[in-house]
Amino acid sequence: MESTIKSTLVQSLGESNGEFVSGQRIAEIMGCSRTAVWKHIEELRQEGYVVEAVRKKGYRIMSSPDTVSAIEIQNGLKTKKLGQHIIHYDTIDSTQKIAHQLVQEGAPEGTMVISEEQTIGRGRLTRNWYSPKYTGIWMSIILRPNLPPVKAPQFTLITAVAVAKAITEVTGLEAEIKWPNDILIQGRKVTGILTELVAESDRINAIIIGIGMNVNQTVEDFPEELKTVATSLLIEGNEPSKRSELVKEILIGLEKYYALYMTEGFYPIKLLWESYSISIGKQVIARTFNETIEGTALGITDDGVLRLQDKNNKIHKIYSADIEMK
Q1: 127 exposed, middle or buried (CB, 10 Å; 0-12, 13-18, 19+)?
Q2: N or C: which end of the chain has fewer CB within 10 A?
């Protein structure tokens, strides 16, 4: 209830386009007294909002903190489901772990877990994901599509398109996708996507999409072993990005492409994905669980499977692998 009141307050002030909103008007919108308005304004200030108050004019927000709280993300968020229910942490071991628990508890589709920091962030193949405090986006989104489990891997590619587009929309940087789950800028990784499935034999119960994005880290923030392979939006663009704005754009894009996929199938997503791909036509090394294959990446199938042509012109279908550019 408290967060809902503050969310309404931030939204009311945010929609004023920098103009003052009177205390009386805010009280009417929120359905509370002007004394209560003042109390909530003070709470926002304690949370890092800079709110200007002028006698006989009212209040206006001068700046807001760079947090990924529900208040910041939902302010102006234009989605129907995704991000309408947000669980925000200051520090958590893994947003994926919490999301799995929420799935078992019946959390609705679109529920999102997000944290300012992860202490045990996870990537693909049980790798750790470096997730320092207040510098990136560490979040997990619950989807519940009415589909067979075989369709689940396509959601990694759907998400990759939404993330790449969000980065370009917010920062102007040119993001590229390396199959299946990495977003690169200038050849270095800025985002990873982890898609996990909760299913029965014939139907999906839930898909949990984990997104880890390096946003405002400096070079010094990365461990030595990551400095040559990882990057951040700050490093590449030379200016900080507001993380909540990036989250909003990701949610808007993901909801849009999810709906497109459910109505028109994977083909339009495939075309979008290939437009961002860094691998198509390039020589790559694919390391699967059973073998290592070198060849030319031809693109993806209508199911999202990577097609790789080796030196003998044999075409391999790669369902899961680590991809290295030659």
Answers
A1: exposed
A2: N
